[in-house]
Design goal:
alpha+beta; binds 2-oxoglutaric acid; about 325 residues; eight-stranded mixed sheet; 9 helices; Jelly Rolls; globular; about 30% helix; binds fe (ii) ion; single chain; four-stranded antiparallel sheet
Length: about 325
Amino acid sequence: MQSLPGAGGSELPIIDLGGVRRGDRAAMSRTAAAIRSACTGVGFFYVTHHGVPDAVIAEAVAQARAFFALPLERKREVSVNARHRGFNALGDALMYEAKRPDHKEFYSMGLELPEDDPDVVAGEPLRGPNNWPKDRPAFRAALTAYYDAMGACGAELLRCVAVSLGRPEDFFASRYRKRLQRTQIIYYPPQPPELGDDQFGVAPHSDFGCITLLWQDQNGGLEVLERSSRRWIPAQPIPGTLVVNVGDLLERWTNNLYASTPHRVVNRSGRERYSIATFYDPDFKAVIDPRDFGVAPEDIRTTPTTAGAHILGRIEKSFGYRKKLKETA
Ligand SMILES: O=C(O)CCC(=O)C(=O)O
Ligand SMILES: [Fe+2]
């Protein structure tokens, strides 16, 4: 059952992580095969028994709702900084050649590193402490717990991904010692129909990094471009699951074996939609080399890079605030 598309009425595969999390060897090979099939196909799947406690999710969502309900000037007190930490107002993110900026607000956090961390001192981009609202300790606690639990789930998933690519389970661990994991709470106001068909909550895009783990509420609105049919298929909400997808960096790393699939969000529910996206990405200096997965040097399709250079390059292109930061620097 576990790798069958169509399970639970969804058009995307549903993969059960429970066996792997219990250390069951047979489950590992089954799950890795299901992951390989999903990643070479549609590039998206749901995971069940993902191990992130319901209470951790519920508290992060409650804190997200309370944060976005604050007056704009309060949210602007933690406006996004050069390390890509903090609040982005409506209109701050423009995907690719989209006509209009995304109709969403979001708040980003990452790995909490002190100012005296050697990589922070050395000026490694995107590194440093988070940009926490001052008077909201419960917000910080909830998001930190969520970040850590999602990080554990991401590590578990990548053990399966490693096996799915014929590598030892711990292949990714040495590339994730100081991970560039970014977690974003996202708020999509109800989208008035008069905004038109070229207005999106998130315009069509593919994700920058290796894998994304998404919690979404019950309102729906995420759609995935199925390449074979050129059809946008809904990633309908399924309680108790996360939606997982391959990003551009893993596509590049696997020399296009795994598919980083375009997706988009339109919140037509008439209600407020909340989601939490976790981009579970490697160390800044991690080398992205398809030879890791047995690709012959003459077959490699892209130039070598590091995770940090790739992700930073994509962030620079997608967020208008970075241009403003440079102008005022
Ligand atoms: O909110 C969602 O459902 C998806 C968000 C997304 O695709 C992204 O932030 O990259
Ligand atoms: Fe995305």
